[in-house]
Specification:
The longest helix has 24 residues, at about 280-300. An eight-stranded parallel β-barrel has the order 1-2-3-4-5-6-7-8, surrounded by ten helices. With about 300 residues, it is of the alpha/beta class. It has helices at about 5-15, 25-40, 50-55, 60-70, 85-95, 110-125, 145-150, 155-165, 190-200, 215-225, 240-245, 255-270, 280-300; strands spanning about 20-25, 45-50, 75-85, 100, 130-135, 170-175, 205-210, 250-255. The model has no long low-confidence stretch (mean pLDDT about 95). It is globular, with a radius of gyration of 19 Å. The structure holds glyceraldehyde-3-phosphate (G3H), 1,3-dihydroxyacetonephosphate, zinc ion and sodium ion (NA). The site of glyceraldehyde-3-phosphate has 8 residues, from helix 3 and strand 3.
């Protein structure tokens, strides 16, 4: 069935592991992820961004996720990633999502609280849980210095006030990660002291880590070996993610590593099989690459194997 993350987060917090939240955009991605979770007997969050809804159209993603649940029998959380308005959150809640993110992180503190509270009220009336964001996680396009970046990290006192005033179910925090394949110019750094300060103020409360891809060099190299051009890509070291998962981080968001695994495999397949033009061949290989990546994450990063 489709389930909320309430009980999953509680178990993850207590067990010192995290649940993977993987972005989905098409059938092969969904199948690769759920097959991995099934084999690992792992809890799972499938998340859909506004861009994914635009690309695949909402009804297709919803039906594909329903098909995955029916096919595998897995409990799956269907989550909206980075909802930026009440309207998109409402649309997903009305569509049967079990979890939504309202991302008011670009707004001033009070406006973020007001918007988040409005979504929480509607969601809770419908049995849906809500993730919010405080601090700026940022993306590839944010070309800012280290000092400027740290000014966007989550303030622990504000985190407590935000959670109390909104009644939100989980909170995405900014401690040094960013979206995409170019996360660090120098040495990777996450502010674990800040994470621990936030945990002290919110004991037992589930925290979320966005921008948590590792950007494994072998996948970047495979892309480049077969015609790609991806340079200076750097992600979060797995050791740091394991540490975050052992602490209050209960949800770890991964999209970029799936994109790299899929693209590396499609490039390799087409380069090695130049006369092949059946999409099922290279998309099938890509689906297998997604599955292997997700199994690797579940086993070696999240620690969520056999937690169902
Ligand atoms: O947070 C961003 C996720 O990687 C989804 O990306 O908005 O391009 O679908 P997207
Ligand atoms: P990555 O770009 O590091 O995979 O992060 C994905 C994410 O946070 C989606 O919300
Ligand atoms: Zn994100
Ligand atoms: Na954890």
């Amino acid at each position: 069935p489709l389930v909320t993350s309430k009980e999953l987060f509680k178990k993850a917090y207590e067990g010192g592991y995290a649940i993977g939240a993987f972005n989905v955009n098409n059938m092969e991605i969904i199948q690769g992820i759920v097959e991995a979770a099934k084999e690992e007997n792992s809890p799972l969050i499938l998340q859909v961004s506004a861009g994914a809804r635009k690309y695949a159209r909402p009804v297709y993603l919803k039906k594909l996720v329903e098909a995955a649940v029916e096919d595998t029998g897995l409990p799956v959380v269907l989550h909206l990633d980075h909802g930026e308005s009440f309207e998109i959150c409402k649309a997903c809640i009305d569509d049967g999502f079990t979890s939504v993110m309202i991302d008011g992180s670009k707004l001033p503190f009070e406006e973020n609280i007001t918007l988040t509270k409005k979504v929480v009220d509607y969601a809770h009336e419908h049995g849906v849980v809500v993730e919010a964001e405080l601090g700026r996680i940022g993306g590839v396009e944010d070309n800012i210095s280290v000092g400027e970046r740290e000014a966007t990290f989550t303030d622990p006192d504000q985190a407590l006030e935000f959670v109390e005033r909104t009644g939100v179910d989980s909170l995405a925090i900014a401690i040094g990660t960013s979206h995409g394949a170019y996360k660090f110019k120098g040495e990777p750094y996450l502010d674990f002291k800040r994470l621990e300060e936030i945990m002290k103020r919110l004991p037992g409360f589930p925290l979320v880590l966005h921008g948590a891809s590792t950007v494994l060099p072998e996948f970047v190299e495979a892309c480049n070996k077969y015609g790609g051009s991806i340079h200076s890509a750097k992600g979060v070291p797995e050791e740091m993610l394991r540490k975050a998962a052992s602490l209050g981080i209960c949800k770890i968001n991964i999209d970029t590593d799936l994109r790299l695994a899929m693209t590396a495999m499609i490039r390799k397949y087409l380069a090695e099989n130049p006369s092949e033009f059946d999409p099922r061949k290279y998309l099938g290989a890509a689906r297998e690459a997604i599955k292997e990546m997700v199994k690797h994450k579940i086993r070696n990063v999240l620690g969520s194997s056999n937690k169902l």
